[in-house]
């Protein structure tokens, strides 16, 4: 067993860290305040492979190993939560399904645009009445007419659609077929009948656009516009989310690390009762707990990524990594504010923003409750009990 990153992974971390601290961290408060991402930085990310982490090189991607991909997202989150969410959704939800199930024509059409750093990918699963229970609740539907799907419905809480050349859309295409009655359709935003609504006003991650989308009789060519096998949309979704959970775990670790770094810096400077607060035992306990939990979360995330890379089963481990890391981010960011006292409650210090940003991580790409269901189901299966 080897707990060391290899040379390539270590060098990748250093390069991405330096880039993010220079190009993202100084602007993160501004991104949060204005709601606009720093496109100047996103364009440059393509040179580090961050806009095509899992995409083959022939389509402009970097095709890095899964641990390096997690490291990349962790470092982006350490600098700017909004950018991290959009880049994670772009890679894990927008690019991955096309790279995994796209035909050569679909890959050639969309992937070079997506990896260029000029556009971001989007996957539309959630609806106003369907989140955790997609198979039971998705109403967006399509029927075939003259070689086209005719798509109608409404998606909600979708990351990046306003920046995406193609919105991968989970659609009910056979009402009688249960979980085998869904397909992933490739919807281009400028197709007639597509409306992308203004970004939601959110608690955090304000630079990452989250939008509703309406489809009214949108006509999509069946052959060019079906991603993967028709009828296997739910299966493709589940596989996509399994990988996506590692990316949310990685973002959680990055956000927790950023809050922790700020807290220990502050604790060594702030004086109370004649000494830096870092010398008071109650503060040291918070520092010790944070260091321990971030390390444990990081190991879970890297292990899930490593299993994925090795082609081994990783569903339970990805759920564990996402569940634990997101809850660690909550605790560490909470304590970071506590260590800052009143200043932690002010927008002048980054921990206030990080606390708001991390709050999504126990919700997006499967809530903590759903992760526990996934883990428990796998454990029961392993014991031959289900
Ligand atoms: C900023 C942001 C970005 C997002 N980006 C995307 C995106 O790009 N694409 C996309 O498709 N979606 C996206 N989402 C949606 C997100 O994935 C969903 O919100 C999430 O899956 C939860 O669904 P829901 O909000 O409908 O909650 P619900 O499913 O309604 O759940 C509500 C509560 O009930 C609990 N619950 C539900 N079922 C069970 C159960 N069986 N047992 C126990 N508890 C249960 C949940 O854990 C939760 O606490 C985004 C959301 C946000 C806020």
Present the secondary structure layout.
Elements: H1 7-23, H2 28-34, H3 39-45, H4 66-79, H5 81-101, H6 104-115, E1 122-124, H7 134-137, E2 141-145, E3 148-159, E4 167-172, E5 182-187, E6 194-196, E7 210-221, H8 222-225, E8 226-231, H9 233-269, E9 271-272, E10 275-276, H10 281-309, H11 315-340, H12 350-358, H13 368-382
Helix pairs in contact: 1-4, 4-5, 4-9, 4-10, 5-6, 5-9, 9-10, 9-11, 9-12, 10-11, 11-12, 11-13
Bound molecules: flavin-adenine dinucleotide.
The site of flavin-adenine dinucleotide (FAD) has 23 residues, from helix 5, strand 1, strand 3 and helix 13.
Question: How is this structure best described in words?
Answer:
With 386 residues, this protein is α+β, with helices and mostly antiparallel strands. The protein folds into 3 domains: 7-115, Butyryl-Coa Dehydrogenase, subunit A, domain 1 (Orthogonal Bundle), CATH 1.10.540.10; 122-234, Butyryl-CoA Dehydrogenase, subunit A, domain 2 (Beta Barrel), CATH 2.40.110.10; 241-382, Butyryl-CoA Dehydrogenase, subunit A, domain 3, CATH 1.20.140.10. Helices cover 52% and strands 15% of the residues. The protein is built from 13 helices and 10 strands. It has helices at 7-23, 28-34, 39-45, 66-79, 81-101, 104-115, 134-137, 222-225, 233-269, 281-309, 315-340, 350-358, 368-382, and strands spanning 122-124, 141-145, 148-159, 167-172, 182-187, 194-196, 210-221, 226-231, 271-272, 275-276. The protein is globular and about 80 Å long. It starts with 6 loop residues before the first helix and ends with a helix. It binds flavin-adenine dinucleotide (FAD).
């Amino acid at each position: 067993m080897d707990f060391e990153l290899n040379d390539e992974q270590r060098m990748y971390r250093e390069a991405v860290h330096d880039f993010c601290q220079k190009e993202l961290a100084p602007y993160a408060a501004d991104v949060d305040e204005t709601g606009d991402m720093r496109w100047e930085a996103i364009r440059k990310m393509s040179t580090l492979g961050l806009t095509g982490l899992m995409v083959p090189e022939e389509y402009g991607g970097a095709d890095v190993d899964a641990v390096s991909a997690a490291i990349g997202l962790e470092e982006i989150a350490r600098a700017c939560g909004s950018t991290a969410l959009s880049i994670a959704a772009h890679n894990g939800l927008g690019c991955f399904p096309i790279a995994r199930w796209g035909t050569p024509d679909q890959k050639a059409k969309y992937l070079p645009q997506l990896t260029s750093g000029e556009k971001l990918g989007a996957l539309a699963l959630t609806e106003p009445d369907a989140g955790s229970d997609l198979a039971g609740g998705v109403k967006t539907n399509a029927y075939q007419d003259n070689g086209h799907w005719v798509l109608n419905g409404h998606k909600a809480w979708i990351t990046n659609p306003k920046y995406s050349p193609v919105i991968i859309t989970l659609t009910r295409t056979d009402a009688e077929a249960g979980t085998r009655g869904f397909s992933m359709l490739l919807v281009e935003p400028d197709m007639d009948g597509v409306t992308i609504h203004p970004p939601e006003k959110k608690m955090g991650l304000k630079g990452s656009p989250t939008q509703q989308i309406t489809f009214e009789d949108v006509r999509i060519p069946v052959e060019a516009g079906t991603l993967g096998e028709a009828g296997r949309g739910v299966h493709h979704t589940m596989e996509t989310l399994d990988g996506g959970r590692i990316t949310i775990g990685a973002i959680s670790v990055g956000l927790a690390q950023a809050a922790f770094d700020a807290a220990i810096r502050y604790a060594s400077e702030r004086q109370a009762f004649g000494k830096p607060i870092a010398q008071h035992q109650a503060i040291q306990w918070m520092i010790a707990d944070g260091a321990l939990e971030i390390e444990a979360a990081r190991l879970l995330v890297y292990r899930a990524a490593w299993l994925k890379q090795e082609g081994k089963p990783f569903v339970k481990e990805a759920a564990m990594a996402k569940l634990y890391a997101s809850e660690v981010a909550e605790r560490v960011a909470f304590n970071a504010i506590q260590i800052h006292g009143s200043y932690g409650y002010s927008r002048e210090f980054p921990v206030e923003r990080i606390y708001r940003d991390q709050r999504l991580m126990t919700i997006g790409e499967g809530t903590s409750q759903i992760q526990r269901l996934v883990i428990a189901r796998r454990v029961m299966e392993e014991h031959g009990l289900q």
